[in-house]
Amino acid sequence: MRRKGFTLIELLVVIAIIVILAAILYPAFAATRRAAYNAACLSNLKQVGLAVSMYTQDYDEAFPAACSMGDRWPATHDAQPADWPVHKTPFAWEVVAPYVKNTAIWRCPGDTGFISGTDGQGNPIVDFRPNTFSHIIPGETSAVGSSYQYNTSLAWVDPDPGSPDPNEQKGNYWSPLTVGNIQKPADTFVIAEPAGHWHNATLAPPPPLRTASNDTRNTYHYNGVMVDGHAKSVSRAFATDRVNGWSRPRRLY
Length: 253
Known about the structure:
Layout: H1 8-58, H2 92-95, E1 115-118, E2 124-130, E3 143-144, E4 149-150, E5 156-157, H3 166-170, E6 173-174, E7 189-192, E8 221-226, E9 231-235, H4 236-240
Parallel strand pairs: 2-3
Antiparallel strand pairs: 1-2, 4-7, 5-6, 7-8, 8-9
């Protein structure tokens, strides 16, 4: 007896059902992947925070006199702001390297690249694709070696006209704070991802292109590790607030 097979209509129906199910489940898979990336990122930052903590224990609780990607550009390790000391300032991940066994903790799995500004010729000032990993473009000179940036304000004094300290009014010198100086250790960043660009990082388009469907600012957030050692995600509003945020006047630390 000859066995009856599937008809073309039956096959098309099955394929259509599979396509519909895939379309329904894809957003869930994408959300799961983003959550996994975020968890891995926070784990990395937790380990980075431990490395910085070990450094401070060895150096009288003082934070590293180091800079971040936006402080020196391009990443040829030569250029830095004109008002900085003339000697080459090391990056934070270079300073704490002796306390890190796995350099992969400096690579956020959600790092898709981000260019911060351009010079007069249109070249990127800082390209946040880490050059310590395989996806670096051959010959690139502006890429950097970490997905995260250091809070240089913990060690560098910017001019603060509102400070009662004359030295802080002039600013522009290295003077690392100590862990004991920090009044809000649970709310003060040590290292964080740049501008929240790795997680839900698509900024809403400017008006008039911005609509309710593409305005993502309500969920835009930063991952970072705090002075007390815990890593967490915070809102963009918190991270940019001048009292509690990323870079506030030294007198408020």
